[in-house]
Amino acid sequence: MATRLYVGNLPYSATEEGLRQLFGQVGTVVSVDLPADKYTGRPRGFGFVEMDSTAEAEEAVRKFDGYTLDNRSVRVQIAKERPARAPGYRPPVERRYGLGGRREGRRPPGRGRGMAA
């Protein structure tokens, strides 16, 4: 059964092929995922590597946690499962519109104090 690893503090120059070769030293790499920023397209500084077995994943954690890659100390750990969300889930209003949510109590334009409605 494949085990997924979280790889954090990656340099922005890291590539999927580079991670595949690095983690291939300890076992079979099933997949590599480097999420990119949706605005810049640049890697976000973390990724996921899926190893073929749990033993290989644990060996990769022992060998590569604290490994220096392009002058950055890489963090490697077994990835935690994401909690399942209900179908049609949307974040609360505060998370969709920034801090404070929708600005409650805000007057519409042209209706300041002392003006007749």
Broad shape:
globular
Helix content: 10-25%
Cα-based radius of gyration, to the nearest Å: 22 Å
- The CATH class assignment of the domain at 3-78 is Alpha Beta
What is the CATH third-level topology name of the domain at 3-78?
Alpha-Beta Plaits
Strand percentage lies at 15-25%
The CATH architecture term of the domain at 3-78 is 2-Layer Sandwich
Q: What is the H level of CATH, i.e. the homologous superfamily of the domain at 3-78?
A: RRM (RNA recognition motif) domain
Helix and strand sequence:
EHEEHEEEH
Question: What is the number of E strands?
Answer: 6
CA-CA gap between termini = 68 Å
User: How many H/I helices?
Assistant: 3
Strand order of the largest sheet: 2-3-1-6
Give the uncertain stretches in residue-range form: none
Structure write-up:
The protein is an alpha+beta fold. It has a domain at 3-78: 2-Layer Sandwich (Alpha-Beta Plaits). Helices cover 20% and strands 21% of the residues. The chain has three helices and six strands. The protein has helices spanning 16-23, 54-64, 93-96; strands at residues 3-8, 29-33, 46-51, 68-69, 72-73, 75-78. Strands 2-3-1-6 form a four-stranded antiparallel beta sheet, covered by helices on one side. A two-stranded antiparallel sheet has the order 4-5. Strand 4 and strand 5 (72-73) form a beta hairpin. The termini are far apart.
